[in-house]
Amino acid sequence: MATKPRVLVLGATGPAGICVLRELVHREFTAIAYVRNRSKIPADLLSNPLLEVVEGQLDTPTPLSAAVARSNAIISLLGPQLGNTPSPSPFPSFYASLCDLMRQHGVKRLFVCCTPSYVDEKEDSSSFVRWLMVQGIKLISKPSYEAMVGIGEVFTKSDKAQGVDWTVFRVAMIPGGSDAESWRKDREVGGVYVGPVGKEWTTSIRRARLARWLVDCVESGAPELVGKTPCVGGTRGTA
C-alpha cells in the first residue's frame, strides 16, 4: 500500500480548518497543524497521535520552514477576515513566500482557499449573484476584497508560484459546525460542484463536505486541477 502523504494545514484553528483536521485523521493521514495558538484546537484532536501541532506566526520563517520541509502536500485556509483586514493585506506576500519555501524543500502540491471575488477571466461566466456578493464585500471591507484578488493573482498573474502544483479553490459561503458530531453528519451531505462561476455553480458548501473534497484531492493528487482556480460548492438542493 502506498504511503499516504503528510499534510500541512494552514488556518487549522478556524472551523473549516478543524473540519479538515478531522477528515485527515479520520482517513489515517498524518497531519501537521501550523497554528498561533494550539489551545484553539479541540482536545479530541490534540490527543490524536496522527496530528502534530507546530506553533508559530506567519512571519516567523524558521518553524514554518521546518513544517513545510516535513510535509508532502499543503492545504491553506488562510485569508482575510471580513471587516478586519489591513491594507495592504499580508496574505499575497505570505503566499509568495510559502511558494519559495515549497521550492526550497521540494514540496509540490498546494491547495489555497480564495473566494469568487477573484475572477477567472478565461472560465467564469457572468453572474448577477456573484456580482451582488462582491459588491457587498467591497462595501463592507474593500481591503478584504483586494486581499482575495491579490491571493489569486499571486498564482495566476505572476511567476511567484512557478514550480508549485497549485490549485486555488474558490468558495463563497461555508456553513456548518466543526464539532465532531456536526462534521460526521455534514461530510455526507450531497455532492460537490467543481468548476467555473456559471449556471451550475452554487454559493454554499458545508465545511465538512469541503474538507472531505479537499482530502479526496490530496489523496488523488487532483492532477486535473493543477494550475486551476475552480469554484467549489454543493450540488443544488444539498448545500
Automatic annotation (TrEMBL):
SUPFAM superfamilies to which the protein is assigned, alphabetical: NAD(P)-binding Rossmann-fold domains (SSF51735)
Residues of the NAD(P)-binding domain: 11-219
Single GO molecular function: oxidoreductase activity, acting on the CH-NH group of donors, NAD or NADP as acceptor
InterPro entries the record matches: NAD(P)-bd_dom (IPR016040), NAD(P)-bd_dom_sf (IPR036291), Polyketide_Oxido-like (IPR051606)
One Pfam match: NAD_binding_10
Lineage top rank: taxon: Eukaryota
Protein family membership: Belongs to the avfA family.
Annotated protein name in UniProt: NAD(P)-binding domain-containing protein
Upper lineage: Eukaryota, Fungi, Dikarya, Ascomycota, Pezizomycotina
